[in-house]
Amino acid sequence: MNAPEIGTILDLLRKEYGKRKLEPHRDPLAELVQTILSQNTSDLNSRPAFNALKAEFPNWEDLLTVDIDMIAGPISRGGLGQIKAQRIQQSLQEIQRRRGKLDLNFLDKMPVAEARDWLKKLPGVGDKTANCVLLFALGKPALPVDTHIFRVAKRLGLLREQAALEEAHQTLEKMVPPADIYEFHVLMIEHGRSACVAQRPHCSQCSLQMICPSYQRFSGHSAGKSG
C-alpha cells in the first residue's frame, strides 16, 4: 500500500478529533522561552516552569545578566534546569547582541526559511523549536515535528523508515499544504497520543486503519485494545 494523501489523512483525523483553528498569540519571544523549556519534557511540566520563571522575572531583560542558578531555580520542575537556564540566557543575550533589543517580531516580515535560519543560530534552537516560534506565535506555515508526528508519519509511509528528524521536518513541511500545517501538527499529535502509540498501537480502533500501510503489521498485536 502506498502512502495516503495528506488531504485524506486530515479528513479522517478531523472526523475523529474535530477541526482545529490556529490563533497566533503574537509573542515570539515568550514562545521561544516556552519551547526551550518544553524540550525533553511534557507540557504538564514545562508550562508551570514557564509561569514560575515569569513570576520571578517579569521582564525578559532581567535574565540577561543574572546568575544561571537564579534562572534554573524557578524552572527546575521542568527538568534539566541548569541546561535550559543556560540556553535561555544565551539565546536572549544573542538576540540582544544581534538586534539591539529583545524583540523577535521582525521575523513576521521574513520568509519562513529565512526566519527559521535566523532562529537556528541561537543556542539550543533546532528545527522544532524554531518552527514552534514561527507557527504558534506568528502563524507562519512552519511545521514542528515531535516524537508523535515522527512515529505516525513513518507508520503511514509519509517518511522513510530510516529518516532522521531533520529530514522529517523538511519532507513533511513540503508535503503538507501551508494552510493545513497547524491542523496536521495538532491532529497528528493527538492521534499519536490516543491511538498510534509507541508500544502496541490500537489499530483495531484507529480511524486511519483503511489507509495505513502499517495496519497489517501492527493489527494482530493490538486486537482487543481500547483507544
Give a nutshell description of this structure.
The protein has 227 residues and is mainly alpha-helical. 56% of the residues lie in helices and 0% in strands. It has helices at residues 6-17, 28-38, 43-56, 68-75, 81-99, 112-120, 127-137, 147-155, 165-175, 181-194, 215-222.
Overview of the structural elements:
By secondary structure, this protein is mainly α. It has two domains: 6-20 and 145-222, Orthogonal Bundle (Endonuclease Iii, domain 2), CATH 1.10.1670.10; 28-137, Orthogonal Bundle (Endonuclease III, domain 1), CATH 1.10.340. It is 56% helix and 0% strand. It has eleven helices and no strands. It has helices at residues 6-17, 28-38, 43-56, 68-75, 81-99, 112-120, 127-137, 147-155, 165-175, 181-194, 215-222. Mean pLDDT is 94; it is low at 223-227.
**Distance between the ends:** 24 Å
CATH topology of the largest domain: Endonuclease III, domain 1
**How many runs of DSSP E, i.e. beta strands?**
0
| Top-tier CATH class of the largest domain | Mainly Alpha
Fraction of helical residues:
55-70%
- Indicate the overall shape: elongated
Q: What's the main sheet like?
A: none
